[in-house]
């Protein structure tokens, strides 16, 4: 059996130095121009699309159905109905391909994940606006 190694108060394990370095690198690539938004909010996500040598901005407008993760790995999913077909797209919050995010309306919901919207049609899929 291996004996447990006890650390003195002066000693720090090797992995803490690695974690500090990773946290430092993550902090450098975090964006500070992201507005506050939550599930239920309607967003305009301006996404940079590269086609050949040209670059243009495409707007994806929809309702946030989830926001998950934290730090550099944080993502959010936006859902919209396009020509009668539900379309969902997941974006990293701190992605350089997102040029900007506009909050159109604030939604009044009681859940953190709005997966139930996938099964609803028409007026039932509407979200009340926050007052």
From TrEMBL:
<comment type="function">
    <text>This protein is located at the 30S-50S ribosomal subunit interface and may play a role in the structure and function of the aminoacyl-tRNA binding site.</text>
</comment>
<protein>
    <recommendedName>
        <fullName>Large ribosomal subunit protein bL19</fullName>
    </recommendedName>
</protein>
<dbReference type="GO" id="GO:0003735">
    <property type="term" value="F:structural constituent of ribosome"/>
</dbReference>
<dbReference type="InterPro" id="IPR038657">
    <property type="entry name" value="Ribosomal_bL19_sf"/>
</dbReference>
<keyword id="KW-0689">Ribosomal protein</keyword>
<dbReference type="InterPro" id="IPR008991">
    <property type="entry name" value="Translation_prot_SH3-like_sf"/>
</dbReference>
<dbReference type="GO" id="GO:0006412">
    <property type="term" value="P:translation"/>
</dbReference>
<dbReference type="InterPro" id="IPR018257">
    <property type="entry name" value="Ribosomal_bL19_CS"/>
</dbReference>
<keyword id="KW-0687">Ribonucleoprotein</keyword>
<dbReference type="InterPro" id="IPR001857">
    <property type="entry name" value="Ribosomal_bL19"/>
</dbReference>
<dbReference type="Pfam" id="PF01245">
    <property type="entry name" value="Ribosomal_L19"/>
</dbReference>
<comment type="similarity">
    <text>Belongs to the bacterial ribosomal protein bL19 family.</text>
</comment>
<dbReference type="GO" id="GO:0022625">
    <property type="term" value="C:cytosolic large ribosomal subunit"/>
</dbReference>
